Amino acid sequence: MNPPEAEMSSTTPVSAVMTSKVVTVRPDQSLAEAADVLAEHGIGAAPVVDDSGSIVGLLRDEDLLISESRLHLPTVISILPGIDITLPGAARRYDEELRQAIASTVEGVMERKFVSLAPDASLEDLATAMHESDVTHVPIVDGGVVIGIATRGDIVRHLAATT
Predict the structure, then answer these.
(1) What range does the domain containing 13 cover?
(2) Residue 64 lies in a domain
(3) Residue 142 — φ and ψ, nearest 5°?
């Protein structure tokens, strides 16, 4: 059974632990500029916002690494001479990696499908979303505008402070 403090902390709103001074990048920024931003602020991800301030993506340090790594070629199985079968998903993965490898701007490598939460979501919601989606950074969004970002470290620091 969990200690009472740990149970109470699960109802804590994300807004209580998120970072509200969010570093963002723009879709048209070069990858070098974006890497500089992440490095300068010592962060592993930044929301990507358009000119109106609306979130359009999430740039992770992992996305920048993919642009510098070797491509994973699709696995092809030859069942008969002249008949090759590409394993399901392999071509899609290759297409995505190729798109990222040749990208020169944030828009080319950013995650377009990402987890986000409202500021009144609970820490339990945050932890569940991070675990189920295997992500480390979750933008906190209100009306399409980023008002914060929460990380696994934020949850751990909160748990340490409440026990």
Answers:
(1) 4-59+114-162
(2) no
(3) -130, 115
